Amino acid sequence: MLDLIPAIDIKDGACVRLKQGNLDKDITVYSQNPVEMAYRWAEMGAKRLHLVDLDGARSGRSANRDVINEILRSYGGLMEIDLGGGLRDLDTIEDYLDEGLRYAVIGTAAIKQPGFLANACSAFQDAIIVSLDARDGRVATDGWKKTSRVDVLEIARKFADLGPAFFLYTDISRDGMLCGVNVEATRRLAAATSVPVIASGGVRDIGDVVSLMEAEADGVSGVILGKALYEGTLDFREALNYVTGGGPVSDDDKL
Predict the structure, then answer these.
(1) What's the count of helices (H) and strands (E) in the chain, helices before strands?
(2) CA angle, 210 as apex, 206 and 216 as ends, to 5°?
(3) Angstrom distance (rounded) from CA 124 to CA 163
């Protein structure tokens, strides 16, 4: 079954969404209380939750710890929670895992310090997600500010041997744009290794969920749901009903 994973992006303690990862403009604040937002998704039946520390992603060190730890303590027993942004050392990852985090998402550090990724995968088996964020097939780092020459498929094949739990693939050009997820690129990545892939970036509506369900056989295991949920172009209960085999829900059920 395709995992539906609501996202909470945290900046300055608030729940926000960006366009194409740009922290300098087009920031929309959806809630001043990310903890209440986590409760909303748990109440709707979410089994997983994706947290992003945007300040940490930019600075290279974990930020927003108080609100993140409150979410972990309150809902870590109800949902499998993953966190990305500023996780650049083993001690920080261990601290969050002790608070109830299920998966640590490593992105920039995986590209710049592959030895660190190897150590993390060894120390925290089945708890590491490698984030592969790409522009035109090339991996981006440093909070998406820099685009490397590293090919996504090439680096995924190398990282797969380290034993990460998942790859998280984001097409940056589509992120926050509500233009449709890049199913084919996600499918290619999933087919390239045995590591299951979580799709991210551009999800607009139930059609994207259905398309990704059709790619499950290739190794696509889940999808991050962000702006589509917050803007209302995708109804979480309807999507959950689809993936569990129920089909569309009625308008009365959405109330």
Answers:
(1) 12, 12
(2) 140
(3) 10
Highest mean pLDDT among 56-60, 141-145, 189-193, 243-247: 189-193
Q: Is 0.85 surpassed by the pTM of this model?
A: yes
C-alpha to C-alpha distances, 24 to 135, 145, 172, 206, nearest whole angstrom? 18, 11, 15, 30
Strand 48-53 with 80-84, pairing: parallel
Helices within 124-162 (DSSP H only) = 152-160
CA dihedral 134, 107, 157, 151 (to 10 degrees): 30
E strands, 145-191, are: 146-151, 166-171
Annotated active-site residue in 82, 133, 171, 175: 133
* pLDDT greater than 60 at residue 253: no
Are the CB atoms for 10 and 18 separated by under 8 Å? Answer: no
In the residue annotation, 9 being an active-site residue is answered as yes
Residue 190 tokens read as 């999933």
- C-beta separation of 216 from 187 below 8 A: no
Q: Which two tokens stand for residue 99?
A: 């608070």
Select from 73, 75, 66 the least CA-distant residue to 10.
66
CA-to-CA distance for 175 and 177, rounded, in angstroms?
5
Pairing mode, strands 138-141 and 146-151: antiparallel
**Sequence-distant (≥ 6) Cβ neighbours of residue 37 within 8 angstroms:** 8, 15, 30, 31
* Residue 216 to residue 191: CA distance in whole angstroms: 10
